[in-house]
């Protein structure tokens, strides 16, 4: 059983998106593996925080959890959740699956389910019932933070229904749209009254297609679609955020009888980076700086995510835990083209474990000074 995501992040159930993001970034910094090397408890906590955020950052997953609790994700974790039970997506193949959200509304899905039992719920467009828009397709990919900085291309290979190129999707021998079936009027169903109910069954003349095909296409045998393997290159823009969904219109499954194709969606996840933690368009990196540089001031060299070297001035008296801000060296902003977030350098000071006798003597003498006794060291 997954832990309550609100409790894991320490936020209220009515917390805003900004409150959830702030809580997440605070905890991910605290439990990041780079800061807790070898700590299994921290590693497990880090996973819990990411899983909780994966649920609450997505409005659909959050709504599903609020309504059903852990049962909403009975088929797996939050990133592979199926709110309809443990059976998983009945159309799926691995991580690649169909997305019912765009291809048909819930009312249409319920109507089709009831028709399967022979009941007529009414409503709907008669022609639309026969000419079904192709299903939307959904895939997901995990990329590095550096790829999110520069942008990248994800190539996905999948097998799906594509439009028959010989008949242009109509299923006819001449490649033209078949005439409407006279028996069902293009609805694909015939109705008969049985007591208090009006029963609908697939039209026997057109097999539920809504069009009467006299001569079928020899390539697809009248289906209008063929099963083929496709390769699709999806461009992931620079500055993309974790959990973003990209949409490619018309790149989903081919529709039936010349109906429009569905869309293709790609969910993008960004793996944690060893050097940088992301906060919106800003980046945070932790740098070890000697005590003498913190006390006296000086320049340090800092690596950026795009492999540059920055010379950063450290003011005298800088404290451990402070953050130095370097403008314009964060992530590309998705809102404003050509603009970047900032880079924050979190100050850390390593404590030496091996000292020479001379170094010990110097530190001991300093510890006896008035300044040191006031808590300066």
Blueprint of the fold:
Elements: H1 5-9, H2 17-31, H3 40-56, H4 59-68, E1 97-99, H5 100-103, H6 106-116, H7 126-130, E2 136-143, H8 145-150, E3 152-163, E4 189-194, E5 197-202, E6 225-236, E7 245-248, E8 264-270, E9 276-279, E10 282-288, H9 291-296, E11 298-303, E12 309-314, E13 323-326, E14 343-348, H10 357-367, H11 370-376
Parallel strand pairs: 2-8, 10-14
Antiparallel strand pairs: 1-2, 3-6, 4-5, 7-8, 9-10, 11-12, 13-14
Please tell me about this protein's structure.
β11 and β12 (309-314) form a beta hairpin. The strands form five sheets. The protein has a four-stranded mixed beta sheet. It has a four-stranded mixed beta sheet with strand order 9-10-14-13, with helices on one face. It is elongated, with a radius of gyration of 30 Å. The chain has three domains: 1-88, Helix Hairpins (Orthogonal Bundle); 94-271, HSP40/DNAj peptide-binding domain, CATH 2.60.260.20; 276-376, Sandwich (HSP40/DNAj peptide-binding domain). The chain has helices at residues 5-9, 17-31, 40-56, 59-68, 100-103, 106-116, 126-130, 145-150, 291-296, 357-367, 370-376; strands at residues 97-99, 136-143, 152-163, 189-194, 197-202, 225-236, 245-248, 264-270, 276-279, 282-288, 298-303, 309-314, 323-326, 343-348. α2 (17-31) packs antiparallel against α3. The protein has 377 residues and is α+β, with helices and mostly antiparallel strands.
């Amino acid at each position: 059983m997954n832990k309550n995501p609100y409790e894991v992040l320490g936020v209220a159930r009515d917390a805003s998106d900004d409150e959830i993001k702030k809580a997440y970034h605070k905890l991910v910094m605290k439990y990041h593996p780079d800061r807790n090397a070898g700590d299994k408890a921290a590693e497990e906590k880090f996973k819990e925080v990411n899983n909780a955020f994966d649920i609450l950052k997505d409005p659909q997953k959050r709504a599903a959890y609020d309504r059903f609790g852990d049962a909403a994700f009975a088929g797996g974790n939050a990133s592979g959740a199926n709110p309809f039970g443990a059976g998983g997506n009945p159309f799926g193949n691995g991580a690649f699956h169909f997305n019912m959200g765009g291809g048909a509304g819930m009312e249409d899905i319920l109507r089709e389910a009831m028709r399967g039992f022979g009941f007529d719920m009414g409503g709907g467009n008669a022609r639309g019932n026969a000419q079904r828009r192709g299903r939307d397709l959904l895939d997901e990919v995990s990329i590095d933070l550096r790829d999110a900085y520069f942008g990248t291309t994800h190539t996905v290979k999948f097998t799906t229904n594509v439009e028959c190129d010989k008949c242009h999707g109509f299923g006819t021998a001449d490649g033209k749209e078949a005439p409407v079936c006279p028996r069902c009027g293009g609805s694909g169903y015939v109705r008969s009254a049985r007591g208090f109910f009006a029963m609908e069954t697939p039209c026997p003349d057109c097999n539920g297609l809504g069009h009467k095909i006299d001569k079928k296409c020899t390539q697809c045998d009248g289906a209008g679609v063929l099963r083929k393997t496709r390769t699709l290159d999806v461009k992931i823009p620079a500055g993309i955020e974790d959990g973003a969904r990209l949409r490619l219109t018309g790149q989903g499954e081919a529709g039936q009888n010349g109906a429009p194709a569905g869309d293709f969606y790609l969910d993008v996840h960004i793996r944690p980076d060893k050097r940088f933690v992301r906060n919106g368009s800003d980046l945070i990196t932790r740098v070890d700086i000697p005590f003498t540089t913190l006390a006296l001031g000086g320049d340090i060299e800092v690596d950026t995510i795009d492999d540059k070297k920055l010379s950063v001035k450290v003011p005298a008296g800088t404290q451990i835990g402070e953050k130095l801000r370097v403008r314009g060296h964060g992530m590309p902003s998705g809102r404003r083209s050509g603009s970047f977030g900032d880079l924050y350098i979190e100050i850390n000071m390593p404590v030496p474990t091996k000292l020479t006798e001379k170094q010990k003597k110097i530190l001991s003498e300093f510890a006896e000074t008035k300044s040191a006794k006031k808590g300066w060291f």
